[in-house]
């Protein structure tokens, strides 16, 4: 299970990540946009999962995928024990007894750890706070000379929108799947359309190649497609696939820019 940012020694800036990463390097787990839009300066991207959480589009977005007047919807992870106290119409479809959430972890070398922490703090400023949890890597190497992935659990930093934060959807009506889908279908923020975020997440999870489909996400995709219409949804899905490919496998020219 995760734990809020804490440690035996708290530096002046309030950060305690070095208590978890004494060598100065950093591991960051992404379960949402970080899967397809990695942090800068990473030298390893490892697919895998964390246990004890459930991923839900129950976090309002007043910046990246919405506005203060018309907030969009983005994902957070919720601790399983607390989630079980909430009314969730898809609860019966959560088959994993360990509440597995799939995603990708990134290794940041010590030379860039503080810089990346700064970057992520700004990127996740809308209601997310730093926590730490064990991450379980999965080796998906297909090429004989591919870089070996870690095999043991790794402590990872993860940004979570806690139920106590102001952007969490406290009203159970706003957490209903159809309500979430309708909000996603019409919302847009500084990073683009909310539908794009949804499709990017679905394609990214599928791209992990680990049977990591998320029933909550796939159900929302189905509902949003109905609201958008076949042609518009197909065009946005195709764009999402292209964007993911460009983000994770940039051309040589882009990689050196």
Automatic annotation (TrEMBL):
The record's EC number reads 4.3.2.7
Could you identify this protein by its name?
glutathione-specific gamma-glutamylcyclotransferase
What are the UniProt keywords, alphabetically?
Lyase
Q: Which SUPFAM superfamilies match?
A: Gamma-glutamyl cyclotransferase-like
Q: Which InterPro entries match?
A: ChaC, GGCT-like, GGCT-like_sf
Set out the biological process GO terms recorded for this chain's protein. Answer: glutathione catabolic process
Where do the record's region annotations for Disordered lie?
A: 235-257
Which GO molecular function entries does the Swiss-Prot or TrEMBL record give?
A: glutathione specific gamma-glutamylcyclotransferase activity
Q: Where is the composition biased (Basic and acidic residues)?
A: 236-257
**Transmembrane region positions?**
none
Give any Gene Ontology cellular component.
Answer: cytoplasm
